[in-house]
Automatic annotation (TrEMBL):
Native organism: Marinithermus hydrothermalis (strain DSM 14884 / JCM 11576 / T1)
Protein name, UniProt field: N-acetyltransferase domain-containing protein
Organism ancestry: Bacteria, Thermotogati, Deinococcota, Deinococci, Thermales
Gene3D superfamilies recorded: 3.40.630.30
Length: 114
């Protein structure tokens, strides 16, 4: 899959190890979760570095039209589902990103379960 995917407004960039601090912050922020999840204190960044580098998940950072990171989307090949980590007030951007991500996954020959 491409390193960068484009929706109508959303930009998706393949997650890199340097994105881990964003993920740690978002994962701990109740605005991004329903219900909130807890990251083990002091373990978050190490956990995400391993998660991103493992390659098991197809993982992208969701960016707004200006290129600012606002959330994450990932595909788990075991469950064939897309998961999101983004604030509710970005729902339209998330939906645009989901559409672009799903299209790219299907073009790559991956099945996506709704």
């Amino acid at each position: 899959m491409n390193e960068v995917l484009f929706g109508k407004r959303a930009i998706l960039t393949r997650t890199r190890p340097e994105d881990a601090p964003h993920l740690v912050m978002w994962w701990a922020d109740p605005a991004y979760q329903n219900p909130p999840r807890k990251v083990p204190f002091g373990e978050g960044e190490r956990y995400y570095q391993e998660w991103i580098q493992s390659g098991r998940l197809v993982h992208y950072i969701l960016r707004d039209p200006a290129g600012q990171p606002v959330g994450a989307l990932w595909y788990d090949p075991e469950t064939r589902r897309i998961q999101t980590l983004a604030p509710k007030h970005q729902a339209a951007l998330v939906q645009d990103g989901l559409t672009a991500f799903k299209r790219a996954l299907e073009q790559d020959g991956r099945e996506v379960v709704e």
